[in-house]
Amino acid sequence: MFWARSRPPGPGPGPGPGPGPGLVPHMSSPQGIHVAHIIIDGQINTPSQVQSQPDRDIETFLNSDAIAETYWQLHIQPRSTWTQELDLRPSVEPF
């Protein structure tokens, strides 16, 4: 499950939050399935995004390889320490 949010100077508002984190415990616990609510809070460094904003510092984009690695780490997480909610944003983003 994931939710993307966009802020200026992005292309506009992102999709709404959908069912959100409240649904996660109901899906994961009874079935023994690891379900996580992931918030992608920023623009991903796709070639089109980077090329369309040549003056923007690359560090302000979310790195797609780092996002993939984060998803992989969730996949291999031990059952004793499952993550249910995770925010991904660049370090330069105000928290």
| Radius of gyration of CA atoms, rounded to a whole number | 15 Å
Query: Biggest sheet: strands, sense, closure?
Result: 3 strands, parallel
The overall strand count is 3
Topology order in helix (H) and strand (E) letters: EHEHHE
Strand order of the largest sheet: 1-2-3
What does this structure look like?
The protein is of the alpha/beta class and 95 residues long. The protein contains three helices and three strands. Strands 1-2-3 form a three-stranded parallel sheet, with no helix packed on it. The longest helix has 12 residues, at 64-75.
Present the secondary structure layout.
Elements: E1 2-5, H1 24-28, E2 37-41, H2 47-52, H3 64-75, E3 85-88
State the main characteristics.
95 residues; three-stranded parallel β-sheet
Entry summary:
The chain has 95 residues and is of the alpha/beta class. The chain is built from three helices and three strands, in the order βαβααβ.
